[in-house]
Amino acid sequence: MVASKATQKLSSIASSWPVDPFRPNIQLKNFLKSLSAHPNLTSEAVQSAQLLRDNAIQKKYSLSTKTLQPASMPRHYERLVEGYERSARGAGRPWWQVFFGVWK
């Protein structure tokens, strides 16, 4: 009975997992879905997957502004996220911006 509840819960976690646009052939949701059928599935594994999905560690140990905006490059992580999002959409910076190191 406990195993079937864990299986159902991990299956629902797997179905709500976001798709990785950079690795279309390797998806964590597929791994979690197949893991839900494992005969030795534990509630700890299900709880760990749920904590990963909910960003529990990031909420528990939040980063300071000093860490997120280092004095040497205060916009580094903002630009990193922007680049990731642009790349996921298939858009990039023009060659001259890359060449001259121009960031908007």
Note down, in words, how this protein is organized.
It is a single chain. Helix 1 packs antiparallel against helix 2 (28-35) and helix 1 (2-16) packs parallel to helix 3 (43-53). The N and C termini lie far apart (56 Å). This protein has helices at residues 2-16, 28-35, 43-53, 56-60, 65-68, 76-89, 95-100. The protein has two domains: 2-60, no CATH class; 65-100, no CATH class. The chain is mainly alpha-helical. The model has no long low-confidence stretch (mean pLDDT 89). Helix content is 61%, strand content 0%. The protein is elongated. The chain contains seven helices and no strands.
Distance between the termini: 56 Å
Mean pLDDT: 89
- What count of helical segments does DSSP give? 7
Helix share of residues? 55-70%
Low-confidence stretches: none
The main pleated sheet reads as: none
The portion of residues forming beta strands comes to under 5%
Bulk shape: elongated
Rg over alpha carbons: 19 Å
Pfam families: UQCC2_CBP6
Helix and strand topology:
Elements: H1 2-16, H2 28-35, H3 43-53, H4 56-60, H5 65-68, H6 76-89, H7 95-100
Question: How would you briefly describe this protein structure?
Answer:
The chain has 7 helices and no strands. The chain has helices at 2-16, 28-35, 43-53, 56-60, 65-68, 76-89, 95-100. It holds the Pfam family UQCC2_CBP6.
List keywords for this structure.
104 residues; mainly alpha; 2 domains; 61% helix
